[in-house]
Design goal:
binds adenosine-5'-triphosphate, eight-stranded mixed beta sheet, alpha/beta, ATP binding, nucleotide-binding, four-stranded antiparallel beta sheet
Amino acid sequence: MTAAPVLDIRNMQTVFRIGGRDIAAVTDLTLTVAPGETVALVGESGSGKSVTSLSILGLLPKKVGRLAQGSVAFRGKSGETRDLAKLDAEALRRVRGNDIAMVFQEPMTSLNPVYTVGEQIAEPIRIHLGRSHREAAADAVSLLADVGIPDPERRARQYPHELSGGMRQRATIAMALACNPSLLIADEPTTALDVTIQAQILDLLARLQRERGMAMLFVTHNLGVVAEIADRVAVMYAGRIVETGRVADVFAHPRHPYTKGLLRSVPRLGEASALKAAGTPLPTIAGAVPSLSNLPTGCSFAPRCPYAIPACSAAVPPLAETGDGQLSRCIRWQEI
Ligand SMILES: Nc1ncnc2c1ncn2[C@@H]1O[C@H](COP(=O)(O)OP(=O)(O)OP(=O)(O)O)[C@@H](O)[C@H]1O
């Protein structure tokens, strides 16, 4: 990747103040996203994926959550690079929805039920781009057409509840793209949708990203979705990236036992129903994600890991270069 990254996170730590203690939900996270690139953050529930995206956006819950360490360098549309970790609330608000847009799992998180869809898409265009009411309204209609909503003039006049779930998610994507962001953060954007609609929304995001050359950070627990949409993947476990690399490399040669376990638990086409018919459950990773307030010493995955040896519990393994830009936080990566 030759182009300078749009997003360059270094050694980020995010903590939550719980019962008078700081609990780290994300630790030592280093991640870049280049222009036109899609990077997926993947991991089980509670691994820190959403906390990572909220940290970038400055949307951590006030008083409780804070970015305690590290930098989040972001290059906006003007070409200027700023450390989002150092911006105040007002400056971050200007970045969100203009330079960085977001799409969440539940479209109603972003849509306001009391305004029409067209009004909501037009608003950021007026605020951030200074377009007139009339121009912004016309832009909103063309954005609705661009995200594949039929009869966009009529849809623009409707309220969110008059649209289906899939159409609502298309509308939030239109809203997200309204100001031509350089980075789109999509946090489980298809999880709440029917399978066929999921595929359509993924296709839509991939097309829009390609056409606009946007950078995209895609948060998901679904490896099938990663394979579909991402160029690179970062696998998270208990708040840390444990493996990262190009999707094709990581899927073909996982170098961390956790990634290997996750990949084994993804059914191949037809395999899930065959196993079900035979009464055989799909393989899963035995054990549970440890509590962040009580992480084991050394590698957090060691208690669940079939490769674990005493040395794994001595210290947190560093991210080791395993070749071709692939990194693994496992001291035994060569044997995996
Ligand atoms: N507001 C909060 N207060 C305290 N702890 C929090 C808060 N939000 C998240 N956490 C903790 O941070 C950890 C990571 O949560 P996060 O939501 O990032 O996980 P995730 O990987 O996105 O999982 P999911 O797929 O379930 O959303 C969890 O252990 C969670 O308990």
